[in-house]
Amino acid sequence: ETGVTQTPRHLVMGMTNKKSLKCEQHLGHNAMYWYKQSAKKPLELMFVYNFKEQTENNSVPSRFSPECPNSSHLFLHLHTLQPEDSALYLCASSLGASGETQYFGPGTRLLVL
Amino acid sequence: AQSVTQLDSHVSVSEGTPVLLRCNYSSSYSPSLFWYVQHPNKGLQLLLKYTSAATLVKGINGFEAEFKKSETSFHLTKPSAHMSDAAEYFCVVSPNTDKLIFGTGTRLQVFP
Fold first, then answer.
1. What is the overall mean pLDDT for chain A?
2. H or E, element range at B90
3. Residues on chain B bordering chain A, Cβ-to-Cβ distance under 8 angstroms
4. Exposed, middle or buried: residue B41 (CB in 10 Å: 0-12, 13-18, 19+)?
5. 3-state class of B76 per DSSP?
6. What is the pLDDT of residue A1?
7. What span, in angstroms and rounded, lies between the C-alpha atoms of B102 and B99?
8. Do A1 and B32 touch (CB under 8 A)?
9. Residue B52, by phi and psi: left (phi above 0), alpha (psi -120 to 50) or beta?
10. For the segment A67-78, what is each residue's pLDDT rounded down to a tens digit?
């Protein structure tokens, strides 16, 4: 788990708050991902970045705004979220973005009140 | 279209008995296949990966999986379950794009 770190590990926010999730990878990878994991649902891919460029936006609402300033850091900016956005948000990285092994962080458990 | 089906949402075994977690996939060409494990309140950890080399893949913690093209299966096995194996297991197929396609997961319970 130490290869990919995520902060904070837990977050409680109101629907009018703005917050950011941070992911950092220490593996020298070039691709980074955001996933959403909700109870009783398959893991949902949200965004993919490859060499800092967004290559995938899986129809994610605009209240989720990703940012990738460099290949080691990935942010997910949150604003005006809804209670149904409560979930575990997982970050992952891989060396390339063509079916390669992805390494996951521990996740941020988000609760929207 | 690529897809993956985990046939059991829950599996319960006694400690020391074999584990079998079933996975079937659908892919129009040779995919990469993975098994990940997720312990409570943790991220996903890679158990093993198949990439068209040996059909029997050995992973961490004594797990292994066999790729059977004729059956489009990639079942995960372990000869003897340990209490620490209790977790959620995900079968994943990668059609060699930037997406991994996850199964819905199998929750493994291990009883003493």
1. 91
2. strand B87-94
3. 31-32, 34, 36, 41-46, 49, 90, 94-100, 102-105
4. exposed
5. strand
6. 47
7. 9
8. no
9. left
10. 999 999 999 999
Query: What is the model's pLDDT at position A96?
Result: 83
Q: What is the pLDDT of residues B86-103, one digit of tens each?
A: 999 999 988 766 678 899
Choose the closest CB to A104 out of B43, B94, B104. Answer: B43
B42-71 average pLDDT score:
90
**Amino acid symbol at A110:** L
Partner-chain residue, chosen from B34, B96, B102, that has the shortest CB–CB distance to A98: B96
Block mean pLDDT (10 aa), chain A, length 113: 88 92 95 91 90 87 95 95 94 85 93 94
Angstrom distance (rounded) from CA B68 to CA B28 = 15
**Residues making up chain A, counted from first to last:** 113
Q: What is the DSSP string of B29-46?
A: S--EEEEEEE-TTS-EEE
- Residue B29: is its pLDDT beyond 80? no
B98 vs A4, A43, A97: nearest CB: A97
Any B CB within 8 A of A31 CB: yes
**Burial degree of B100 (CB within 10 A; 0-12, 13-18, 19+):** buried
